[in-house]
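User: Some background: our group keeps a shared notebook of sequences we're curious about, and every so often someone picks one and asks for a predicted structure to add to the entry. Today it's my turn. The entry only has the sequence so far, pasted here. Could you supply the structure so I can complete it?
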Amino acid sequence: MTTIPLVDLKAAHAEVAEEVETGFKRVIADTAFVGGAEVAAFEEEYAAFTGVPHCVGVANGTDALELALRAAGVGPGSEVILPANTFIATAEAVARAGARPVLVDCDPDTYLIDTDAALAAMTPTTSAIVPVHLYGQLAPVELLVAGVDGASVRIVEDAAQCQGATRYGVQAGSHGIAATSFYPGKNLGAYGDAGAVVTVDREVAAAVRMLANHGGVRKYEHEVVGFNSRLDGLQAAVLRTKLARLAAWNSARRVAAARYDDLLAGLDVVRPVTLAGNEHVWHLYVIRVPGGRRDEVLARLNAEGIGAGIHYPVPVHLTQAFAYLRYGRGSFPHAEATAGEILSLPLHPHITADQQERVVEALASALAA
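Assistant: Of course. Here's the predicted structure to add to the notebook entry:
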């Protein structure tokens, strides 16, 4: 049986393999394995791509978010507001920075952070709000920016799933600070872990760079206690090669998402909603399977060689790691309902119409069983 992967990293590599090899040769010839010209070039190119002036490459997306929070002044004794519907790394970064995660529910249609709930959750100890840009589209950051106007609360965007997405024409980080991940399956993926912080704030960029480099910008000069979280030259070479194709790859994702919209018409599923003002880049195509049948349908798809998945099956407050927050089941009904019904269908720039038709045929069969 031919399988259809959720993400086809082999197809992506085949397209860029020759250029990646050339990039690796440059890095090896220069022996610039940590930092170096390749990293500097990628930071400049990614900043230009996002339209945000400063980019600092780091080791992974979780570090990017933690370092962004720390550079924004988040630390022990403070609270950070974030959605319950997110990957665990968002909450981990807050906890690692020494702050307390304060969770809020998600919008029932887009699954993005409920901005009204986030603003209502602010207290005198709130130091930041982290809107998470899920599945390839941006949360309404401008509403949070307006809502915290005059307060000493920073907006730090979790942009791990939205490279190239825009809201009213601007990308993540345009309002202040954003952290992103280049995990291999992302729209812009490395060949291992990698991440970056993009920001309009020169001081934040300098603080992230210092924190990520053992607390100093020059060797053996350590101004603060820092971390070892640096982007390496080999990953930068991969990212530069893929970045040149990212706009075209995102366009291909949009075509595939539109095809799914058409193919799924008439099936008993809820198709994804794009928020007005957003240009989606479809990191994931997430449907909802009502009636408590999601797990059964997923098992049938997987048995047919369809690489469907769930993003994410357990809201943050129901994980054992964050049980200490003491929210309990029922605290965030939209996030909990979403977690029980969402299903991610295969989608990537190289997926074919025939593959998508087979996915939907298998889905229809599973729903009818």
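Suggested note for the entry: The chain has two domains: 9-240, 246-368. The mean pLDDT is 97.
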